[in-house]
Amino acid sequence: LENVQFTIRHAQAFMMALCSEETVIIGHAVNNDLAAMRMEHHCNVDSSFLFAVKDEPGATPSLKDVTKAVLNEEMPKTHDSVNDALMSFRCLEVWLEKGGIVEDIERSSQTKNKNA
Predict the structure, then answer these.
(1) How far is CA 40 from CA 15, 47, 84, in A?
(2) What is the DSSP track for 4-20?
(3) What tens digit of pLDDT does each residue of 84-109 get?
């Protein structure tokens, strides 16, 4: 990282320019993203808190598993933060349409093995 030109301070400044106190940040496990940037923001909608994992009380489902269960779509193999935000938003729309009454999320075998 010695030749990195974009620092955490740049990321923080970028977010501060985009967000006011009233800006709603929507995402999946967005608390992790904010912590990585050493930022606090109190107006968040986080899909990781809205969906439960089947037979694992208190566990956080992966966005991959939520997207598959809720939208019946596969997440791309290559990480894409814009796609992650879009899928999280689409899953939140379904959650809202159903009044928060949704099935628990079944972990995929890949996710089960990663968490074992």
Answers:
(1) 11, 18, 20
(2) --S-HHHHHHHHHHH--
(3) 999 999 999 999 999 999 999 999 87
